[in-house]
Specification:
The complex is a heterodimer of chains A (about 725) and B (about 200). In chain A, the strands form four sheets. Chain A has a five-stranded antiparallel beta sheet with strand order 2-1-5-4-3, with helices on both faces. A five-stranded antiparallel beta sheet of chain A has the order 7-6-10-9-8, sandwiched between helices. Chain A is rod-shaped, with a radius of gyration of 73 Å. Chain A has 20 helices and 17 strands. The longest helix of chain A has about 70 residues. Chain A folds into five domains: about 150 residues, no CATH class; about 110 residues, Beta-Lactamase; about 100 residues, Beta-Lactamase (2-Layer Sandwich), CATH 3.30.450; about 70 residues; about 160 residues, 2-Layer Sandwich (Heat Shock Protein 90). Chain B is of the alpha+beta class. Chain B has one domain. Helix content of chain B is about 20%, strand content about 40%. In chain B, strands 2-11-10-5-6-7-8 form a seven-stranded antiparallel beta sheet. A four-stranded antiparallel beta sheet of chain B has the order 1-3-4-9. In chain B, strand 5 and strand 6 form a beta hairpin. Chain B starts with a strand and ends with a strand. At the A-B interface, helix 3, helix 5, strand 3 and helix 8 of A face helix 1, strand 8 and helix 4 of B.
Chain lengths: ~725, ~200
Amino acid sequence: MAAGSIARIGFGVLPMLVLFALLLVSLSLLSDATHNSERFGQMYSMLLLINAAALVFLGALVIVNIIGLIRQQRMKVPGARMTSRLVVMFVVLTVVPVSIVYYFSLQFLQRGIDSWFDVRIEQGLDDALELSRAALDVRLADILNLTVRMAENLSDAAPATLSLTLYDQRVRSGAAELTLLGGDGRIVASSSSDITDIIPDQPPGEVMMLMRNRKHYIGLDPLGESGLYARALVPVLSSRSDSEVYTLQALYEVSERFSLLAESVQSAYTRYKELAYLRIPLKFSYSLTLSIVLVLSLLAAIWAAFHSARRLVAPVRDLAEATHAVADGDYSKRLSVASEDELGFLVRSFNDMTRRLAMSREQTVRGQQQIEGQRAYLEAVLANLSSGVISMSADSVLRAINHTASKRLGIDARQYLGREMSVLASEHAYLGPFVDAVVSHRSQGDRSWEEEIALHGAGGYQVLMCRGTVLGGKGKRAGGLVIVFDDVTALIQAQRDAAWGEVARRLAHEIKNPLTPIQLSAERIRRRYLGRMDAQEAELLDRATHTIVNQVDAMKKMVNAFSEYARAPNLNMAVMNFNKLVDEVLDLYRSNDLKVDMIERLDAENDTIEGDAGRLRQLLHNLIKNALEAVKGMPDARVTVSTRGVDGVKNNQIELCVEDNGPGFKTDVLENIFEPYVSTKPKGSGLGLAIVKKIVEEHGGRISAESGEAGGALVRVQLLLSNESRSVSDRQALS
Amino acid sequence: MFAEARITGSLSLSTVAVFIRRRANVLLLSVICCLPAQVCAGHPGIIKLEDAHTFRIDSSDFLDAQFAIELSSGAEEAVQNSVPLLFELQVQVVEAHTWLWDSVVIEITERRLLQYHALSESYQVKDLNAATQGNYRRLDDALRAAGKISNLLLTDQSLDRGPTYSIRLRGSLDVESLPTPVQLIAYISSDWSMVSKWYKWQLVR
């Protein structure tokens, strides 16, 4: 599940924690800077920039995370939906309280800052300032008056004595500095109480402008660190009309107590004014700081939400993927146990489960393999068994038919597996006796039975020795039936042949051997006594010995014929064309003037058989002779010899029909027509058809006799074509 | 002993740097903040060089200069509310190189603090370099005093006579020295962005 693995967007926990710690420090510095401009005021803009950069970074991180999550959801990556649900939950859980806190913080901030400022305090400070001014104004008025008087005193002073006069006036008035200024602002004379202060303090330009209009000036000047000074400028009006108009500048030190109080009021007023002015920017900067803190916290929280959601979902996703794999049959999946909590327990349980599943599957597979092996073994045994085996269920449905069985019965086993047994009989009429036997034993409730069943099937005449056993037990096979059968046709044939051979040997031994002495004795009696006897007796003797000799001869012939029949054949099997053989034999009969209509219809296209040509010739001779004898003397005597191909059950056969229009077989002999010494002819050995049957059986064929449609007799001989010669050879070997 | 001075305006790297920094701040903060109404009101502040000349006394060069400073309405309001304003008048003597950047040989920053004194209802201008102080009834006079440089020693005999030197002059309001809450607004608002261009002329000796 490569696609399933969620791409880890983001960073590790440790770097992020460090980043958050730095961010926290930066935020606290920012907040400190907002409070106290002395310490961090210089860093404020830098801090703001750093925090804004962090904001952008975190924002980008969150956006990347969101995009990644959306993409994963579209690709249906396992765990993506759960992750997004968790993220949404976490974000909502974070955003709602933080937003509420933010809202109320803003409110408190605005109102708190506003509440610092009070109209009454402002008014009070204004009044205090005004009061200070009023108090100073009284002092300033005195100083101005004093200065005016000093200016009057100076007006009459001679230029040479100006410095002295100034000094005198200063000492007397208690001024800190007295300066006499020319019309162009130059210093004419000066006297100062501070001997280190060489350069006298010059009045501002605007005051000098005022002086040009010969007006008085009194003002308060804060002079650096040395406190408040009162500056008074008064024109010195000289009595001489041509002389230059001087200006007297007097600087008085305001008393220390006054100065301190006034400065205190001034600084408090200034501070308050500044603060009042800074109220709005302050609110703004506080709000900004708060907002940055909020947004940073939110973004960090969202990132943390992504991180924790992913961490939470990771084991669940792994479980889901592993479950999928297990469902697909991969039991090798093992998950690593990352935690000791419930999820860890779940993962451990999952691992246990897959291990057990894998073990049980392995056992099952092993068991199946064993079963398969046993079945293969059984199948091999059954297939190679020379006995036919058929098994069926309790409801007579065929379950197994081995190769030998299908060959013996001439059926295709695959067609009938899973079907009822009765289908065999309905589709193959020759299997009727077999099916009937099975059915009858079942209906009788025989648990175990044995029966010999004769079939005229595809492989010719067959005798099957069947043994049936009803299966016991309690399984699904209970009540089923196993039928094992062997083809004992050849065995029976061999037994019969052996029996007939024994009979023939006995006949030869017990009958044929005495016949020769009997014949010789009869001939000697005749030779010895025929000449000595009279004519009458001689004729009797002659007739009697003649009869003995003839009968003995007949008996000899009979025994020979029987020996011939019973003799174990020594077949010379060869591949030949059956039609050609038939044609050759018929040629012998056609050349004779028999007055019989010989009809030859050799229609079989495939006539290649494996057989003994001599024996088959004998077969044809016997059959044709029989037919000719049957129609002998009839006006429209007709003998038809025909061959045709016959489709057996699974092999082709050739069928020879010899038909005549004679009297036909009598019904009572029809059943035993092929047994020895059964004959419809007044003369005959009674072995003709028996030999024919024997030859047919030697060739693995079938023979049947019936009365023709228009009277007459019909003998059918079916022989296997040469592709089935193997079975013939088998038979031969057996017999 | 007076030498004529030619005044040329040129933009130096440090100007660009300051400009970029301030613009970046403006951009950044305007994105994340909603601006208070105070920020964008009234006419803008101006600092420009009105007059400048150098003169030589005993192989030393001196500078007299006068910057015309007009406060923006926001800055004026701040001054009226006893917020001190710090003006910086930067004077640089620059040695010109043909291929390299110009190198600053001498840099003097004249710092003038303007503050309203409520008790005397006057404006104080403190020369922080010379530690002197003047009181002015009118703001205009105070601003002229704040923008005035007189008899500033630029070079003396120790300075090599070989290469050509230029004088560069610039006046500005120091935003960093403002109270922190105002700083923030000063970064955002053009109202508080009071800085002249660099005035540059060749020192003729």
